[in-house]
Design brief:
Structural class: mainly alpha
Shape: elongated
Strand content: under 5%
Helix content: 40-55%
Number of helices: 5
Number of strands: 0
Radius of gyration: 16 Å
Oligomer: single chain
Length: 82
């Protein structure tokens, strides 16, 4: 079994290190003493794309009521129109 598949299964079944990883980026970073490196907003992960190309999305991630998500704050469409 490939290591990444094993890790995904360990996270799903909360086995070994997967138990910690299942808690999310903020808790993993805190447990490892690496809070400066955990990328999250309000302790929730952000989407997998970088907002630097559309600065309004960075602001939306920082101020959204559900943390860094794009479901309620899809500002990039307005930014691209201008």
């Amino acid at each position: 079994m490939k290591p990444i598949i094993k890790l995904i299964r360990d996270i799903a079944y909360r086995r070994g290190i997967g138990d910690l990883l299942a808690e999310g980026v903020a808790r993993v970073a805190e447990a490892l003493g690496a809070e400066a490196y955990g990328v999250h907003v309000k302790k929730l992960e952000i989407p997998a794309y970088d907002p630097r190309g559309a600065t309004s999305m960075g602001l939306a991630y920082a101020t959204a009521d559900r943390s860094g998500d794009h479901f309620r704050t899809w500002t990039v469409t307005h930014e691209l129109e201008t």
